[in-house]
Amino acid sequence: MLMGNKDFLVVGKNGKIVLPKDVRSKLNILEGSKLKLTITENKIILEKVMESTTPSAPYELLYMPEITKDVLTGEELHRDFDKEARLMKIPVFANLAKRGFFIMSEKNRALAFGFKTVDEAIRHYLNKGVITKDDLERNGIQLG
Question: What is the pTM of this model?
């Protein structure tokens, strides 16, 4: 809560609000922080917006990115290199990749592994407890 005359805020030109340095330090707001301002009845609520930081995909871990067609059928593969690279940091998917999981058509993947899509495999391993939502979030993977 802001108290005293020195803590009053004044709205300047173009609606710009400047928070004095002592107020920012009390609220643990650093320069460049993003804030959300909400006005309801007689209250003005100022919240610090926490930005999620998604790690960059470790493309150096991709398993055979040069393969774009199923080696058995010649069928065009629809690979999501970003998701694959992120999954490679999760041991169960790194092991699956070594067995050709990412370089198979959906039909062959279903025959070999029991999953048509990568998302099916993610859901399966989540349900079995082999991986956690935290594993996915930590690697920047959104289940689609």
Answer: 0.62
